[in-house]
């Protein structure tokens, strides 16, 4: 989903986060573990096993508690994640989608791995966007991806890095047979990302393009 940007003031940092500042995060390295260990509240946040780590990012699945804070109390969310929260969800469509996700998470908390993830920049300690799936695999084994980052972090490879991690994780799940996506036909950035992922354009409906990526079998 498209998102804007909002500025934040200075924030006092815990010592663990100060030690990790300026270090490039790599999957499984100590800086990422410090970040996740500090941020995690075992009763409220997803476990490490549900988070996805890349070279520069950590993807944390929305829980119902975290999404409520994102919608209603961003200062509390920043405190919970030990990170600045940059996305703005303002449009009626965005809010309708997110409230639908919240209802789905309340009904089935375990489905959070098939919903949206906060994109956490490990060095800047900022949530720079979100990416994820529009629900669990359907009866044909299809899942649909969606994504967005704030303008200040666009065109730097972060969106592709996050989506690539999600695609890799999805295909590691035996029930997933294909991944789909849609984007506007004038969204050149999104088209580049989907093409780089190896997705194939399979349809067009008005201004909307449909994309498809099958599981590769050997």
Lay out the secondary structure.
Elements: H1 15-20, H2 30-39, E1 52-53, E2 57-61, H3 64-72, H4 74-81, E3 84-85, H5 92-107, E4 116-121, E5 126-133, E6 142-149, H6 158-171, E7 178-184, H7 188-196, E8 200-205, E9 208-214
Parallel strand pairs: 3-5, 6-7
Antiparallel strand pairs: 1-2, 2-4, 4-5, 5-6, 7-9, 8-9
Key terms for this structure?
single chain, 218 residues, alpha+beta, 7 helices, globular, disordered N terminus
Give an overview in words.
This protein has seven helices and nine strands, in the order H-H-E-E-H-H-E-H-E-E-E-H-E-H-E-E. The protein is of the alpha+beta class and 218 residues long. Strands 1, 2, 3, 4, 5, 6, 7, 8 and 9 form a nine-stranded mixed beta sheet that branches. Helix 3 (64-72) runs antiparallel to helix 5. Mean pLDDT is 82; it is low at 1-44. It has a domain at 15-158. The protein has helices at residues 15-20, 30-39, 64-72, 74-81, 92-107, 158-171, 188-196, and strands at 52-53, 57-61, 84-85, 116-121, 126-133, 142-149, 178-184, 200-205, 208-214.
């Amino acid at each position: 989903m498209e998102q804007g940007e909002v500025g934040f003031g200075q924030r006092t940092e815990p010592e663990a986060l100060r030690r990790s500042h300026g270090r490039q995060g790599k999957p499984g390295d100590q800086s990422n573990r410090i970040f996740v260990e500090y941020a995690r509240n075992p009763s409220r946040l997803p476990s490490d096993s549900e988070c996805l780590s890349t070279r520069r990012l950590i993807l944390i699945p929305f829980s119902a508690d975290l999404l409520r804070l994102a919608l209603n109390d961003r200062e509390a969310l920043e405190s919970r994640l030990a990170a600045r929260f940059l996305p703005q969800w303002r449009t009626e469509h965005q809010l309708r989608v997110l409230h639908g996700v919240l209802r789905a998470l309340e009904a089935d908390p375990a489905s959070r791995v098939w919903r949206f993830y906060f994109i956490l920049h490990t060095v800047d300690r900022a949530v720079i966007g979100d990416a994820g799936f529009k629900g669990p695999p359907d009866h044909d084994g299809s899942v649909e991806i969606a994504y967005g980052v704030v303008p200040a972090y666009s065109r730097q490879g972060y969106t592709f890095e996050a989506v690539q991690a999600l695609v890799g994780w999805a295909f590691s799940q035996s029930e997933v047979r294909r991944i789909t996506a849609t984007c506007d036909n004038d969204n050149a950035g999104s088209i580049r990302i989907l093409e780089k992922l190896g997705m194939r354009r399979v349809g067009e409906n008005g201004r909307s393009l449909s994309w498809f990526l099958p599981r590769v079998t050997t």
